[in-house]
Design goal:
Length: 432
């Protein structure tokens, strides 16, 4: 795994300039090619689609297109910034990355920028100088009109797309989709009926530490490179930080067990990538973190929107449903039966705790949250292997402990039953 290429790809996907820049380059190539074709026409404009006006008409049309496209581009950029601000304030600052990574928004900006640049390039080729023969690029002007029609269609799509994408459930769905993709990539194997046994703690003492030369959030770990460095030195290499952790410069990044002479330190430093924030390239827990943040804000006293929190639990339910059947490797890595590296990563219990603890506490006293979370846990227990039932049963016990705490009607709270919608089972206890 090339961590530098992975980090570059993440930055490009989250940038608002890369795709518009690519569209601008395409506009430059299109303009130059169209003008070259126009010069081969030698004034023959008999085809119906070619522009039939003179120099001044062509100049007026192209200059109007360029001016209007600049205005449209500024409008789209302003709307995009407004959407980012609303998403940050209403949902969570962490979900801004889903809007920045939205290809539709980037493509709309790219189409407008490309149309603007194309019009400028064609405008400078429309000539009516005394010492030169008048030249009207008929095909180029016609293509400019086509780009205007494309831009209008793109703008209409953009308005609808923004209106749909700012809905909380749409944001949750995008985060959930990205998280489940990360789970399939990180944990491709099925657990089947096996039970994951914890590895014993190594008794070999730590003989040296490798200090971090950078600070930031750990965004990626090249496990193959770490294992190769461990085999080269004959030591057991342990990574102190997990993907998603913040590490300051000068902090202990690796701990070495065994006799070590400093060989491979540069390789170990390059095996960990840092960034300003977490990503989901190797960090499926970050997706759950974003969803939990949305639920926490929805359950805050200033918002008090438990229905949004129930929708969050719906998506967490889907994520845990994917995880419960996946084999999650432990921290130790072995070669030929011997431990060579210790690489911490979240386990099943960690994912369950992250998914439930904060929402359960924030929703204490909310019958809707109690019922929906109980329904999620009961459903997961029906498919969880024996080794993964403990974390789910513990969460159910904590829900039972919370019953009555904050509820005005204690007896009704103790009668709380699982509900996929949070309002209680439909059709139970009713009359015909």
């Amino acid at each position: 795994m090339n961590l530098k290429l992975t980090a570059l790809r993440e930055r490009l996907r989250s940038s608002l300039w890369f795709l518009p820049a690519a569209c601008a380059a395409g506009a430059f190539i299109l303009a130059e090619s169209a003008v070259r074709i126009d010069r081969t026409l030698d004034g023959d404009r008999s085809n119906w689609f070619l522009f039939g006006g003179g120099v001044e008409s062509a100049r007026a049309v192209v200059s109007t297109i360029a001016t209007s496209m600049l205005t449209f581009t500024g409008l789209v950029f302003s709307v995009t910034m407004l959407v980012l601000q609303l998403a940050s304030n209403q949902l969570s600052p962490r979900v801004m990355r889903t809007f920045l990574r939205d290809r539709a928004n980037q493509l709309v900006l790219g189409v407008f920028v490309a149309t603007f640049l194309y019009s400028l390039l064609v405008l400078r080729r429309v000539t009516n100088e005394p010492e030169a023969e008048p030249f009207v690029p008929a095909l180029s002007v016609w293509l400019a009109l086509l780009l205007v029609l494309l831009s209008l269609a793109t703008f209409i799509y953009y308005i609808d797309h923004v209106a749909q994408s700012i809905k909380p459930v749409a944001v949750m769905q995008r985060v959930t989709s990205e998280t489940t993709d990360a789970i399939r990539r990180l944990y491709p194997d099925s657990i089947g009926e096996s039970v994951e046994e914890p590895r014993p703690v190594l008794s070999v003492p730590v003989s040296a530490v490798v200090l971090s030369m950078r600070s930031g959030v750990v965004t990626g770990v090249d496990e193959d490179r770490i294992i190769a460095a461990a085999r080269e030195t004959g030591c057991v290499v342990g990574l102190r930080a997990c993907v998603g952790d913040f590490v300051r410069e000068g902090a202990a990044l690796f701990e070495i067990r065994g006799e070590w002479d400093g060989t491979g330190e540069a390789s170990l430093q390059e095996s960990v990538s840092f960034g300003p924030e977490r990503t989901m390239e190797q960090d499926a827990a970050f997706g759950i973190r974003q969803l939990v943040d949305i639920a926490d804000r929805a359950l805050s006293p200033g918002v008090n929107d438990p229905t949004t929190a129930v929708q969050v639990i719906d998506h967490i339910h889907e994520i845990l449903g994917h995880l419960v059947s996946r084999s999650i490797p432990g921290a130790t890595r072995e070669v030929d039966g011997s431990v060579v590296a210790i690489l911490p990563r979240p386990g099943w219990d960690d994912y369950v705790a992250l998914s439930c603890d904060e929402i359960r506490r924030a929703g204490r006293g909310q019958m809707q949250i109690q019922r929906r979370m109980r329904a999620m846990l009961v459903d997961l227990l029906t498919v969880a292997p024996p080794g993964r039932r403990g974390a789910l049963e513990e969460q159910l016990a904590l829900l039972d402990a919370d019953l009555g705490d904050g509820f005005a009607d204690v007896e009704a709270a103790r009668a709380t039953t699982p509900s996929a919608q949070g309002h209680g089972p439909i059709g139970v206890g009713g009359t015909e």
